[in-house]
Amino acid sequence: MTARRTITNPELDEIYSSAPFDYDFETLLSWKQPFTIPITPPDITALTDNALLESAESIAQNVINSIEASCPAGEPGLATYLEKQYLDIDQTHSETAGKLFAKKALLLLLYSEIRRQAGQHTDLYNGIHVYAPNDQTLAQFFEVTAYVYIEEESEFFIIEEALYKLAISLTAAQIEIVLKRCLKKVLRELEKTHHTATSVLQNRNQERPHSNTIILTTNPTIQLGTTQGPIAISRYIEFGLKYAGRRLINMAEAAALRIFRLGIGGVLYSPELGNSDLYHDSALSIPAELLIPDLPENLNELATTEGLLESPLRIHTDLDTYILTRHLSTADAAHQIPVRALIFDEASNSYVSVPSRDFPIRLTFPIHVAGGSSTTSPGIPVKPNPYKGVNLETASSAATPFPANEPQNPRDCIYCFPVESGLPPLYIVFNSPYPGATTIGTYSGRAYNPDKAGGPIERLDWREATINQTGVDLVKLHVSRFEPSDANDIMIDRLEKILQGTSQATDTDKRFYTHETRELERFRALGIPDKIRPSDVGEVWNNTHTATLEDYQLTSEPELLYTPEAIEADNQQIARENK
Where is average pLDDT lowest: 7-16, 158-167, 317-326? Predict the structure, then answer.
């Protein structure tokens, strides 16, 4: 008689870990193979064939009952996790708005992570979700497995493996139950945080409707600041910049190379989405030596006299994309970067720039000192934003010869700190995404030109909307003028399900629906043909989009028009396209 072939330890270690199992929220998010489970699976190797066949169903049912009984109530560990993360955010950010938007970014990330993890591996046992309707119970399925493989001693390990997979899939199902409860709480937190954040932002816009100050740190690192606060950037941007610079220097012709692209995670513009918020006036700051390794010794003198510095490499912006360019000729202005001085402002204990016609944005570099020290020298730097999210993405690196992508009026400048500060000079690239703007929206806080928005602002109410087939067709028609968008596809699919009666309209659905149809009216009022996207660097879109937000008294947060799933889909689309 052939000895039974039982599952070996290396085989078992591939799918199962005997480490303690925990339903803690943070642990569940990272639960993966080899899997821990809340019970120790019974050892069936000592049973005779007859004993195993007689008890197979009851053995499996005991495993099922034990694992289901282990599922806790509530959302274990979630409150503690959020409290810890919120504390870190409160310690990192000094301003209320910064804290709120960092918390919102955290909650959006958690929403995505929970959705990704919930339901994973629930089909490991029999190819379908363990709780999916089936002709056989889970225990009966195990009994059948035992009958099929018991006769061949060499296949006994398959029965053992099936029992472990049953336990793992059931554990995955309990994890799904707990995470779905957590998801509801995260969504409630997200809604509460969103309303508070938008209220704070609206109040701040009313208090400072014409703010033109961008705050950056004195750290010699790559930063992106806006008039509404800092934005997190990827650690790969510096690598991408250096790589692009080396490629361009080695080329025999003038060329341009994209180095990164903006996403909507930081409330930024996405041309695919067509409706997320354009970022506010921004300034990209990088150490000047990254762009120009051999800086002249008289750089501070050039700054004092508002001189120019020649460099074959410069960065300019094209809406949502930052592009490194190289020119061959040294005889024209394309090589000449303005150099300006920063001064020390004793009242604010900061280094500041002096706004001018060419550079109207005021840059502020606060000096952070340890404890209660009164020194004016740089001390403890501001902690960078530690949170994840698609904010700056490395872009495709195909070099494009000029003049196809000839940059128009690049807005860059080298800023020098006072010599006694000991701080290195910075290369700053300004970007203003609101061409032709003349007014700040009352509700949206966005800059736009109401005279070119397709008619006056009206007081409309999205709550009164009735979603019908004609309107949905208009939504499809309007968004077809933009690039293909996974986010728009998700929102339109939701509208179609509402028409079919399989889904109820949410406030987000109504806002998206009314926004798109109203924006289409404004495009038509401007004489823009359907399905045509104006080639005006976003001016028509910005004016009509902002006016539509004003029509419905909405702020510019993308979450008002798009569900978290849609925003996540847009982030993933940008990530795919930037690979």
Answer: 317-326
